[in-house]
Amino acid sequence: MIDKAATEVFAERGYEAATMQEIARAAGVVVSVLYDHYSSKRELYVDLLERHGQTLMKRSIRPPTGSHHRTELHRQIDDFFRAIEEEPLLLSMLFRDPPGDRAIVKAHRRVQAMATEAISIALGDELPETERTMIAEMVKASLASLARWRSDHRELSREQCVDTATSLIWDGLSQTINHSSFSG
């Protein structure tokens, strides 16, 4: 209950404007209960950022398991957009510029680096690590950018975004990774 309330308050008000009192009120607890779990607002925010990042990665990034890689890519991109639809607060915590607090910036970078690494691993080992990492960063950045843009263009269906992103990413990957086991 505290986590959900804190995520909502941070997403709505931003890190700087949110207060522990406001979070406690939204969670239906007294402030001392928050401090039983977290030593500071920063610690609470970093914990939420890392957990939301891990959850999104688990829901949407997986190595291919069969020979239908394009279908699996489509499913993972759909899982990514579905997660954001189900938890729109992920968008503001994970894909907007982080607050200016150094510890939060470091945590944000750490979460983003973990996502890049997870995508890189999911791409397989057909490419050298550096190239795979660059591709993973581009995939991550393009999906995050599309998710932010879509938040202002709700008239577009998730399916439209998923289909377009899948086509663009797949076409690029299949051109870059000219390997028969990947082109399935």
Give the mean pLDDT.
88
| SSE pattern, N- to C-terminal | HHHHHHHHH
Strand content: under 5%
Sheet with most strands? none
3D shape: elongated
Kindly state the number of beta strands. 0
Distance between the termini: 44 Å
Number of helices: 9
Structural class: mainly alpha
Helix content: over 70%
- The rounded Rg comes to 18 Å
Low-confidence stretches: 179-184
Characterise this structure.
With 184 residues, the chain is mainly alpha-helical. 73% of the residues lie in helices and 0% in strands. It is built from nine helices and no strands. Helix 1 (2-13) crosses helix 2, helix 4 (41-60) packs parallel to helix 7 and helix 5 (69-86) runs antiparallel to helix 9 (158-176). The relative contact order is 0.12.
Task: Give the secondary structure arrangement, pairings included.
Elements: H1 2-13, H2 20-27, H3 31-37, H4 41-60, H5 69-86, H6 89-94, H7 102-122, H8 129-151, H9 158-176
Helix pairs in contact: 1-2, 4-5, 4-7, 5-9, 7-8, 8-9
Short descriptors:
single chain, mainly alpha, 9 helices, disordered C terminus
Concise description?
The protein is 73% helix and 0% strand. It contains 9 helices and no strands.
